Amino acid sequence: MNNVSLPPLAGKAQQHFDELIARARNVPLQTCAVAHPCDYASLSAALDAHKMGLFRAILVGPEKRIRQIATEQGLDLNDVVIIDSPHSHASAAAAVAEVRSGRASLLMKGSLHTDELMHEVVARETGLRTERRLSHVFVMDVPSYSEALFITDAAVNIFPDLACKADIVQNAIDLHHGLGLGEPRVAILSAVEQINPAIPSTIEAAALCKMADRGQIQGGVLDGPLALDNAISPEAATIKGIQSPVAGRAQILVVPDMEAGNMLAKNLTFLSGANAAGLVVGARVPIILTSRADSPHTRLASCAMATIYAHHLSSTKPLN
Question: In sequence order, which residues have a C-beta less than 8 Å from that of residue 153 and are 6 or more positions away?
């Protein structure tokens, strides 16, 4: 078995997140509709971002309950707008309505279930759909990797087909550009780097790369199929004899399905000390999905990414 080294140590963890947070405080202030922030984690995350100037928060949920949590936890609501709603379903609908009306340019999940919020987001007549499929992107700050590492899709599309994967790839590329990170190197992952008819993800990876060659996916440099080792390790790519601008230097990892992506992201988080911020993209506005397991710093990074990307979308042609 060959010994494979990782890219050089980036330095202290969270350095990429610190840079995003600093940049977000220097873009025009965005307004974020926060759907049902009815526990300490979601309410404090929204208020922290509000106080830091990452966005202006509109809290949408049962006002009495929100104020009770704030009082119990010593949180300040003095300069925050609250829109009263009776329950989580109504909170999701009202928060989406704030975005549709133009009063908010960001959407953030509170303590309601993700499915409740996404149900309102994808509603045909009243939601925030575009021509794209929605997808989730984790932006990982990995101590042992020299660049921010995107992983997609690990939270929304369970078993995406080829057409859905094309949108997943394009969404991630657009986010990479929108965060000011330039043209990304995109690795389409599988278990192996050779096309094998017995492994459907290898065939889809090859098709995605040809779609990029034909201009159906734009703005990134794609290669695949690639196994994880030769996607992120130059030494592994050299050992396998893979020559491409992506192999060993990937900035976006496109996983075969949600199970693989979720396990990869959590592996990096809990075994490698990585931090994972995340957004849902492909809707009219960025959608912030935080987890109760996220650290306060990671939640702020997700808010910062959303603010930077929302500003980018407002200054470019929006998705239809």
Answer: 135, 136, 137, 160, 168, 255, 258, 261
